[in-house]
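Progress report, Aim 2. The chain analyzed during this reporting quarter is listed below.
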Amino acid sequence: MNSVDIITDGACSGNPGRGGWAAIVIDGTRHTEYSGADAHTTNNRMELQAAITGLQHAPTQRPLRVITDSQYLINGITKWVKGWQKNGWKTREGQPVENRDLWELLITVNGPHVSWQHVKGHAGHPLNERANTLAQQQAGSGTGTPLPAQTTPSPAPTHTNQSAFPCYLSLIGSNLQRHATWESCQRMVHGVSGAKFKKVANQQQLEAQLQLWKVRG
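Predicted structure tokens for the chain:
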């Protein structure tokens, strides 16, 4: 069974200060972005909120992989929470655990079907860069109002007839998407390091571009 990837990130303008979070759920060729803001928060709370939202919107009957650049999030959910729970949500020093409300919520959506992977931040991982861009944008707005989810549907198969042209292709890592408009393509690639895009006018150009990028449609 294919796994679903959830790429998350949090940001804060000042710590505490205005914050933003983002979660990108990749299910096959379906790419859905969620993001939101908080007018007064911390970076760690935004990292937690991103993971919670991503898991809440992912299919529970599938293996899930959360990809994050937050050591706090990774260590907390894979190592520290069990000790915190045994200690009545106190640290080793006997202090109350910060962000307990979000840790308890994260535990409810975590499970054996979820794995956690750390990636280095700002190191060129395309989807980590995209999540960071969304979180930073939300931190800049600081309104506390989540943006509606942005979903890019699965691209049409390569045998689509000529009425589907012209169209726009985007490639982020191994995630190939096909867009009917430039605006849709631009939303996908804007601010993403290493993203590729191309307008194709017919089936022959489409197949040639897929060969050039060494991907399958």
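The chain is about 35% helix and 30% strand. Strands lie at 4-13, 17-27, 30-41, 64-68, 114-118, 147-152, 167-172, 175-179, 196-200. These observations will guide the mutagenesis work planned for the next reporting period.
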